[in-house]
Amino acid sequence: xxxxxxxxxxxxxxxxxxxxxxxxxxxxxxxxxxxxxxxxxxxxxxxxxxxxxxxxxxxxxxxxxxxxxxxxxxxxxxxxxxxxxxxxxxxxxxxxxxxxxxxxxxxxxxxxxxxxxxxxxxxxxxxxxxxxxxxxxxxxxxxxxxxxxxxxxxxxxxxxxxxxxxxxxxxxxxxxxxxxxxxxxxxxxxxxxxxxxxxxxxxxxxxxxxxxxxxxxxxxxxxxxxxxxxxxxx
Length: 234
Hints:
Blueprint: E1 6-10, H1 14-26, E2 30-34, H2 37-46, E3 51-55, H3 63-73, E4 79-83, H4 88-96, E5 101-104, H5 109-121, E6 132-134, E7 140-142, E8 147-150, E9 153-156, H6 159-170, H7 178-186, H8 198-210, E10 220-223, E11 227-230
Parallel strand pairs: 1-2, 1-3, 3-4, 4-5
Antiparallel strand pairs: 6-7, 7-8, 8-9, 10-11
Helix pairs in contact: 2-3, 6-7
């Protein structure tokens, strides 16, 4: 029998925390929980968890600070944010700090379990992804070193953002839709009917970093009705 995935829930609202514990144990996970930020951070740094479910509004240390500490400690630690805040600014801030995905409260149990399974699965396309390429304006994308450079100046890129760039680059001129990105980059099953803005938010973050004029993108463009394309140097 394969070993169970070990999950940490950091959530101060007791009914939500207990409910999450029950649901995830029922679905076959080993679950540990913490009710405040300081205890949660200590457990996350020392417990060797496969995934951390992290509430943003916590006593002691908030979820943003925990996410930042976890990313500095282990860049590969899977993290899903639990947030009652629904604004793009709050979500963008959490994703910028390195969270893999977010679930907005109130959430359905089915959606939450699906996202947990997807992040743990970390499905990857079978074809080999490009690791070094240039955009049309000369920006260099270096996946092996998780960075981008324009005119010698570094541009910080998260692991998830790099995976999006690699997948778009691998498919050249074919526009890639949000559902395909959710399946191939995030690992969700096909036609899973995921209720999330995470693709659009990540695209917006990438444009903020890469586009000279975000109002008129010319490197990471939207093909109406089809998806996104990355314009590469010849």
